[in-house]
Design goal:
Blueprint: E1 20-21, E2 28-29, E3 33-35, E4 38-43, E5 54-58, E6 61-65, E7 70-75, E8 79-87, E9 90-102, E10 109-113, E11 118-123, E12 130-134, E13 142-143, E14 146-150, E15 161-170, E16 181-188, E17 197-201, E18 210-214, E19 221-228, E20 235-240, E21 246-249, E22 259-267, E23 272-278, E24 282-283, E25 286-292, E26 296-302, E27 312-319, E28 322-329, E29 334-337, E30 345-354, E31 359-361, E32 365-368, E33 382-386, E34 389-393, E35 399-406, E36 413-418, E37 422-425, E38 435-442, E39 459-463, E40 469-473, E41 483-491, E42 497-504, E43 508-511, E44 520-529, E45 537-538, E46 542-545, E47 550-551, E48 555-556, E49 570-571, E50 574-582, E51 588-592, E52 602-603, E53 606-607, E54 611-621, E55 626-635
Parallel strand pairs: 3-9, 17-31, 48-55
Antiparallel strand pairs: 1-2, 2-4, 4-7, 5-6, 5-8, 8-9, 10-11, 11-14, 12-13, 12-15, 15-16, 17-18, 18-21, 19-20, 19-22, 22-23, 22-24, 25-26, 26-29, 27-28, 27-30, 30-31, 30-32, 33-34, 34-37, 35-36, 35-38, 39-40, 40-43, 41-42, 41-44, 44-45, 44-46, 47-49, 50-51, 50-54, 52-53, 54-55
Length: 639
């Protein structure tokens, strides 16, 4: 055997005599069994006294010692040791004895509260041959592994108090009584009370167990009762000794059944359920969820009906960890969730709410919403025309959009695929007479029909002979309810809005507004939809420049009567002016570069005769254009 470390203590206790003789009776020891550290007293043979030299061996390791009546040997480690005492006579005088030293561990035991101030102890430890139970109330130790004890104090009616119970082990009744004890508190009460199951939780994983939430007394013993698919036919599932606040019930099929639980407070002293010791019933819920076409998630559940013993008040339904519906009546067995989108996973969990605040939480069921129905076509597309581009906009729906384009009333061809509800076509021109339509594939991968054709507004305009401006545009297409009216906006050359025509109910108009300050106008047409919440469509912008017209009289009478005494040319939008007047023989009689000046009918101070005279003018307008104008005027000499 492996060598053990020993320390020799020489003691000479008075009145101590060995009880266990060695193999040949040469010496004795007081203990051959005990817990580490174990100190044994060895009483030596007579011939080792009086100056004789003796030695001892433990596992063949020899040590000498002086003669004396006794020696004390401490065994600090556990194991079996062969102790040999060797006298002066050599091997002939030696003798041995075996010492058993065990590990010094506190014994494991349970102590339970009973009614009538009784407690019961069950020793579950197997390390020792004998166990001593001490109730720490002045009574003698009890030897055994189970015992019922009645505390006589405090007197009736006492409050609940806690006492301490100790248990220590011993190897053999004659072994050393040196093993460490274990102590536990126990509640002493007149009557046991019932406990409550405050929560039932069905985990999604692993799906074969149910977790119970408890508020137990640690020294009270309970019996867990279970009924399958009912709340009346209970059977014992198991005893709960020293239960924690959470207990797991394995080996169930909560996805196929519901289970009801009851906790009975058990009196182990009488081997009966304590009077009134059965808790209220609380049940799990068998929850199912099915995705149905079109886009409906149907949630159903089965559990025991509410009753005086199974007293729940309502349900709460959660979706993806957030509240979906509450309260749901206790009589309900289904809920329809229509607020779902395709190909989205939804996790549902049902909570049963009990009158006493307890809860039963179901397994989470996750399903994916779907539909095979064709989504409706897009009915409202707006278009905003810019410089060499058009932006299309339509209502946003979940899915992927496919755009097609037609030019000059030709066949539609693919243009783009996008997940956005806007698209900018940089290849658009007003002259292309383009139209668009859209289809989309929803989240369920179902494709819609083609939308209405959306044809951007094409605006055109020209200056009439009287310098009024005629505008016309294409009727906007792309809205299911059509156009309510149009708004025509007029801007100056710097982009400042100077006039709005609203409403315009046709697709043409003539701007007859007189405006001598502006020669250049920019026009835009806005289509206002008949349906609300739709973005107006906007046409291309056109620029119209009015003509720099000249106005002049066809005759004048230079007779100083204050009426038509001179010939003067008037002009619109003229910034530069040059004019010359000729007689019928081509001789120039007058010239001027001032539009405000006039010809008085004279040449070199002499009044010209009645005749027809020709003028030629050169003008530059506000936009820098140069024009040549000519005409004739009759000079009349009236007396």
């Amino acid at each position: 055997m492996k060598l053990r470390t020993l320390i020799i203590l020489f003691t000479i206790p008075l009145g101590v005599y060995a009880q266990f003789p060695s193999k040949n009776g040469k010496f004795t020891v007081d203990f051959i069994e005990g817990c580490a550290p174990l100190v044994i007293t060895v009483t030596h043979p007579t011939h080792c006294f009086g100056g004789s030299t003796c030695s001892y061996k433990v596992d063949n390791l020899e040590r000498s010692f002086q003669s004396g009546d006794t020696i004390g040997l401490p065994f600090k480690l556990q194991g079996q040791f062969d102790l040999e005492i060797i006298t002066d006579g050599g091997g002939a005088g030696s003798d041995t004895i075996r010492i058993n030293v065990t590990a010094n561990t506190p014994p494991a035991f349970d102590v339970f509260t009973c009614s009538g101030r009784q407690v019961k102890v069950n020793v579950t430890d197997t390390n020792y041959s004998h166990y001593f139970i001490n109730y720490n109330d002045g009574t003698a130790d009890v030897v055994g592994i189970t015992n019922t004890h009645t505390y006589t104090t405090p007197p009736l009616p006492p409050p609940d108090v806690f006492r301490s119970v100790s248990v220590r082990g011993r190897n053999g009744m004659t072994g050393a009584d040196n093993c460490i004890s274990n102590s536990k508190p126990v509640k002493v009460t007149n009557a046991l009370v019932r406990d409550t199951i405050n929560q039932v939780l069905v985990p999604t994983i692993p799906g074969t167990e149910i977790q119970l939430g408890l508020t137990p007394d640690p020294t009270t013993q309970y019996r867990l009762m279970i009924a399958t698919n009912n709340a009346t036919s209970f059977q014992l599932f198991g005893n709960l000794s020293n239960p924690g606040t959470t207990e797991t019930v394995p080996g169930l099929r909560p996805d196929d059944n519901f289970y009801c639980f009851r906790l009975d407070t058990f009196d182990p002293c009488t081997n009966t359920v304590a009077p009134g010791g059965s808790s209220s019933v609380i049940c799990s819920t068998n929850l199912d969820a099915v995705a149905q076409d079109p886009l409906i998630n149907n949630i159903t559940w089965v559990t025991a009906g509410s009753s005086p013993t199974n007293n729940y008040t309502n349900f709460t339904l959660n979706r993806d960890g957030a509240l979906l519906a509450s309260p749901i009546a206790a009589t309900a067995t289904a809920y329809v969730d229509a607020d779902v989108d395709c190909n989205i996973d939804y996790g549902y969990q049902l909570v049963t709410n009990y009158a006493d605040g307890s809860r039963s939480i179901s397994m989470t069921k996750t399903i994916t919403a779907f539909t095979t129905q064709q989504p409706p076509a897009i009915t409202d597309i707006s278009s905003i025309v810019g410089d060499a581009q058009v932006e299309l906009e339509w209502p946003l729906v979940a899915g992927s959009f496919a755009l097609e384009k037609s030019v000059h009333n030709g066949t539609y061809s693919p243009l783009a695929v996008t997940n956005s509800n806007t698209y900018l076509d940089n290849t658009y021109t007003t002259a292309s007479n383009a139209c668009y339509h859209i289809t989309y594939t929803d989240a369920c991968l179902n494709e819609s029909d083609e939308s209405l054709d959306a044809c951007p507004i094409r605006l055109s305009g020209n200056v009439q002979s009287d310098n009024t401006i005629a505008l016309s545009w294409s009727d906007y297409e792309g809205w299911a309810l059509g156009v309510d009216h149009y708004v025509v906006e007029k801007y100056d050359a710097d982009g400042v809005l100077i006039q709005t025509f609203d409403p315009v109910t046709s697709t043409s108009m003539t701007d007859v507004t007189e405006d001598l300050a502006n020669q250049v106008y920019n026009y835009v047409v806005r289509a206002i939809p008949a349906a609300p919440a739709i973005t107006p469509s906007v046409s291309n912008e056109i620029t119209v420049v009015k003509k720099p017209n000249l106005f002049y009289p066809t005759a004048f009478t230079p007779n100083n009567d204050g009426l038509n005494d001179s010939f003067k040319v008037y002009g619109q939008y003229v910034v530069k002016f040059e004019m010359m007047i000729f007689n019928r023989w081509g001789e120039m009689l007058y010239s001027s570069d001032d539009l405000d000046q006039s010809w008085d009918g004279t040449y070199k101070g002499v009044l010209m005769p009645e005749s027809t005279y020709v003028f030629k003018a050169k003008i530059t307008d506000l936009v820098g254009r140069t024009f040549d104008r000519s005409g004739s005027v009759v000079l009349l000499r009236k007396k």
